[in-house]
Specification:
The chain has 21 helices and nine strands. Helix content is 55%, strand content 9%. The N and C termini lie far apart (54 Å). The relative contact order is 0.12. The protein is an alpha+beta fold and 643 residues long. The strands form two sheets. Strands 1, 2, 3, 4, 5, 6 and 7 form a seven-stranded mixed beta sheet that branches. It has a two-stranded antiparallel sheet with strand order 8-9. A hairpin with a 2-residue loop joins strand 4 (247-254) and strand 5 (257-264). The chain has helices at residues 4-8, 23-30, 35-53, 65-71, 89-108, 120-128, 147-160, 162-174, 177-183, 186-198, 311-347, 359-388, 393-419, 429-438, 447-476, 487-492, 497-509, 522-549, 557-581, 586-604, 610-624, and strands at 203-206, 222-226, 229-240, 247-254, 257-264, 273-276, 288-299, 349-350, 353-354. The structure holds flavin-adenine dinucleotide.
C-alpha cells in the first residue's frame, strides 16, 4: 500500500468520536488532582482521542498488535510480521539518485558550507532528483513512496550521511509535509505540496517553546485573527531546520486552542520574524534555532482544520512517522560504529594479543549486531503497520525509545569503550558525534516520558471499561478508600464490580488460546514463544497494578515506567525473532538470538549462564572477522594515532 492509505483510513465516523471528557481527565479529577492538572492532562488525552477517531476501528489502538497481544485471548502473530518492501521503479530511481548525489558531494567535500552546515546547494540538488518529494503523492508533485520503502531507505541514506537522512524526516515526517497531506484541504494541498515536494520550500516543525516542551498544554505562542490574516506572537525554541525561507508547521493557540498554521518564513529576518541563535552541540551540521514572532502576518487560509481535534492532534500524527525514521537512522549510526570498531579491534594488540580475540570486545560486537538487527526489525514492522493503515502509536513509540536508547548504549558502552582514549580525539567518530548519538533520546519526546505515554495508551481502554465506573460510583457515594467489608461500600459498588469480576474470572478460568508461529529456527521459536507467553500474562499484572493503585496510578510513574519497559522489551523480542526468522543470513539469526537471550535474562533476573557468553562471544568473533554482511560497502573506520 502507498502512504495514501494512511489518509484513506483516516475517515471519521461519529461512533468513533471521542467523548467530551477524556478518561485521563476523569481519572485525575476522581483521584483528587488539582483542576489545572486534570484539565491540562485532559487536553493532551483528548488530542490523542481525536487522532484515534481518525482511524477506522480496526486500525485504532485497541486493535493494534500490542494492545491485542496484551488484552486479547490470543496473540495475533501475523500482526508482528513485517511486510515485504515493494518499491516501484520511479521511487527506486529517486532513492538511488539521491544516495549517489550525497555520496559524490561527500567524496568531493562539498556537502557542507563555510559554516559547516549542510549547504543550500546540496539541498537544492536533492530537490532536483526528487528526494524531498518521496512522501508526497504523485498528484501533488511527489513520487508517493510507501512508508515501508521510505523508512529503510533512510537507513541506507544515513550510512552515507545521517544529517541528510535526518532532514528528510524533519521535512517529510514531522515538518509540513505530513500535516498538509493528512489534514490540509485540497486547496491547501495544491498550494503547498508541489513546493514542498520539489524542495523549493523545505520545512520544519515548530512546537517546543521556552516554557513548553514535555508539557504541550503550556504553549503560549498565539495567532489572533485580523481580517484575512492571523497575527502571530510568541517564541519557539530548538526548531530544527528553522532558517529564513523555510515553511514551518507552527503549533500555536488560535482562540485559546492549539492549532497548526502553515507559515512561510520570510527570506530574511525582519521585524516580524527573528531567529534566536545559540550554541547547540547536537545536530551541528543542521540549523536549530529559536524563532521569535512579533505580529507576524499569516493568511487565515493557512490554518489547517482537522475534521476533529486540535493542533495537537496534527502534531501527534506526524510524530509517529518521525519516530520510526529515528530508529532507521539509529540502525545506520550503529553500523557506522561497528565499521569503526572492526579495524581497530584487529589492529590493537594488548598483552601480545589483538583485542578482537578478547571476550569483552567480542561480547560488545555481538551485542551491537543484535541491536542493529532489532532496529531493522522494528523499522520494518512499524512501517508495515503504518502502510496497512494502523495508527501505530505504541509501535512507533517502541521504535523511538529502542532506537535512541540503544544508539546511546552503542556509542558509550560498546563503541567508546572499545576505542579507549582515542574516542576523545578530534576526528574520532565518538568524540566528534557524541551529542548526535545522545540527542535522539530527547527530541521527538524524551524516552521515559514516552514510555509513560505508551503505558497510558495500553491501559486506557481497560481503565475506561472497568475502573472508571468504579471511580465514579465511589465519588457519587463520597467514599475515598473503598472497603468491601463495609456494607455501604459494597452497596455503592454493587452494579459496577460485576463486569470486572467477569473479566478476572476469564483470566483465571480459561487458558489463552495458542498462537501459531510460522516456521522458524528453534532458538528464535523459543524466544517468540517466551515473548508471547509473557505478553499474554502481562494483562493480569497490569490490571493488578491498576487495581492496587486505582486512581492514584497516574502518580506511580516508576511502576508505570517499569511495566512499560517490560512490555516494550517483550515486543522487541517478538518482532526481532520473527524478522530474523525471515532472513537468509545465519549471522542475523544468531544476532537476534543473543539479543533475545539478553532480554530474557533481564526480564527473569536470572544469573547469566556460560552458554550465553559462549553464544555472544562466538557471534562477536564472527563479526570481528567481517561476518556481518549488512556492513558491506561501508568504509572501514580510520585508525587514529596509528603506530
Ligand atoms: C537537538 C534537538 C532538536 C529538536 N528539534 C525540535 C524541532 O524540530 N521541533 C520542536 O518543536 N522541538 C524540537 N526539539 C525540542 C524537543 O522536542 C524537546 O526538547 C523535548 O520534547 C523535551 O522538552 P524540554 O526540553 O522542554 O524538556 P522539559 O519539558 O524541560 O522536561 C525535562 C525533563 O523533565 C522530566 N519531566 C518533565 N515533565 C515530567 C512529568 N510530568 N513527569 C515526570 N518527568 C517529567 C522528563 O525527564 C523531561 O525529559 C529539539 C530538541 C533537541 C535537543
Amino acid at each position: 500500500m502507498t502512504s495514501e492509505s494512511t489518509e484513506t483510513n483516516a475517515g471519521v465516523t461519529d461512533k468513533n468520536s471521542p467523548s467530551p471528557v477524556s478518561f485521563a481527565e476523569t481519572a485525575l479529577r476522581l483521584g483528587g488532582k488539582s483542576e489545572e492538572e486534570a484539565t491540562r492532562t485532559g487536553a493532551i488525552d483528548q488530542a490523542d482521542d481525536h487522532v484515534e477517531a481518525m482511524f477506522q476501528p480496526q486500525y485504532q489502538t485497541v486493535s493494534s498488535p500490542i494492545h491485542r497481544a496484551v488484552w486479547d485471548r490470543s496473540l495475533p502473530v501475523e500482526l508482528f510480521q513485517a511486510s515485504e518492501v515493494e518499491t516501484d521503479e520511479d521511487v527506486q530511481t529517486v532513492m538511488d539518485n539521491s544516495v549517489e548525489l550525497v555520496r559524490r558531494h561527500k567524496e568531493q567535500g562539498t556537502l557542507l558550507d563555510e559554516n559547516k552546515k549542510v549547504s543550500e546547494a546540496m539541498l537544492d540538488e536533492l530537490g532536483g532528483v526528487g528526494y524531498w518529494g518521496l512522501l508526497v503523492d504523485r498528484e501533488h508533485g511527489g513520487s508517493g513512496a510507501s512508508f515501508r520503502s521510505f523508512a529503510p531507505f533512510l537507513t541506507r541514506m544515513a550510512l552515507v550521511d545521517g544529517n541528510i537522512a535526518g532532514l528528510a524526516s524533519v521535512h517529510g515526517c514531522i515538518g509540513a509535509v505530513d500535516p498538509v497531506r493528512t489534514f490540509g484541504s485540497e486547496e491547501q494541498k495544491q498550494r503547498f505540496l508541489p513546493g514542498l515536494a520539489s524542495g523549493e520550500r523545505l520545512s520544519a516543525f515548530a512546537l517546543t517553546e521556552p516554557g513548553a516542551g514535555s508539557d504541550l498544554t503550556a504553549l503560549k505562542t498565539r495567532a489572533e485573527r485580523n481580517g484575512d490574516h492571523f497575527l502571530v506572537n510568541g517564541e519557539k525554541l530548538f526548531i530544527t531546520n528553522a532558517v529564513p525561507g523555510r515553511t514551518i508547521g507552527l503549533v500555536c493557540l488560535v482562540d485559546d486552542s492549539p492549532a497548526v498554521l502553515i507559515c512561510e518564513l520570510p527570506d530574511e529576518e525582519n521585524d516580524q520574524v527573528q531567529f534566536n541563535k545559540y550554541g547547540l552541540y547536537a545536530l551541528k551540521q543542521q540549523y536549530n534555532q529559536g524563532i521569535i514572532f512579533k505580529d507576524f502576518k499569516v493568511p487565515v487560509d493557512n490554518l489547517l482544520k482537522p475534521v476533529r481535534g486540535t493542533g495537537l492532534t496534527i502534531a501527534y500524527h506526524g510524530l509517529n512517522l518521525g519516530r520510526i525514521a529515528l530508529c532507521a537512522i539509529s540502525a545506520a549510526s550503529m553500523r557506522i560504529m561497528m565499521a569503526g570498531m572492526l579495524p581497530w579491534a584487529q589492529y590493537r594488540y594488548t598483552y601480545g594479543e589483538k583485542i578482537a580475540h578478547r571476550e569483552l570486545v567480542q561480547r560488545r560486537l555481538g551485542r551491537l549486531a543484535g541491536l542493529i538487527v532489532a532496529c531493522d526489525a522494528l523499522v520494518a514492522w512499524g512501517s508495515s503497520l503504518i502502510d496497512q493503515g494502523y495508527r501505530g502509536e505504541m509501535e512507533c513509540i517502541i521504535a523511538k525509545i529502542f532506537g535512541s536508547e540503544m544508539g546511546k548504549e552503542a556509542a558509550i558502552e560498546l563503541c567508546m569503550k572499545t576505542h579507549g582514549g582515542r574516542s576523545f580525539l578530534h576526528g574520532h567518530l565518538i568524540g566528534d558525534n557524541i551529542h548526535e548519538y545522545l540527542a535522539p533520546c530527547i527530541y521527538e519526546g524524551e524516552g521515559e516520558m514516552l514510555g509513560m505515554a505508551f503505558f497510558k495508551s495500553l491501559v486506557k481502554h481497560h481503565g475506561t471499561r472497568f475502573f472508571e465506573p468504579v471511580g465514579k460510583a465511589l465519588q457519587a457515594a463520597g467514599i475515598k478508600k473503598p472497603n468491601m467489608l463495609n456494607p455501604r461500600h459494597a452497596w455503592a459498588l454493587k452494579g459496577v464490580l460485576g463486569p470486572y469480576a467477569g473479566w478476572m474470572a476469564g483470566q483465571y478460568l480459561w487458558p489463552r488460546s495458542w498462537s501459531q508461529l510460522p516456521p522458524m529456527p528453534e532458538s528464535l521459536k523459543q524466544h517468540a514463544t517466551f515473548a508471547i507467553d509473557q505478553l499474554q500474562k502481562s494483562a493480569k499484572q497490569i490490571s493488578g497494578t491498576m487495581r492496587k493503585h486505582q486512581l492514584k496510578l497516574a502518580d506511580r510513574q516508576c511502576r508505570m515506567s517499569e511495566l512499560s519497559s517490560r512490555i516494550q522489551s517483550l515486543v522487541v523480542m517478538l518482532c526481532t525473532s520473527l524478522y530474523a526468522a525471515n532472513q537468509q543470513d545465519e549471522v542475523v539469526v544468531d544476532a537476534a538470538d543473543v539479543l533475545c537471550q539478553q532480554i530474557t535474562l533481564e526480564l527473569t533476573g536470572r544469573r547469566t549462564p556460560d552458554s550465553f557468553y559462549r553464544d555472544i562471544t562466538r557471534l562477536g568473533a564472527t563479526v570481528a572477522e567481517g561476518g556481518f554482511a549488512s556492513l558491506t560497502g561501508l568504509e572501514p573506520g580510520e585508525i587514529l594515532m596509528n603506530y
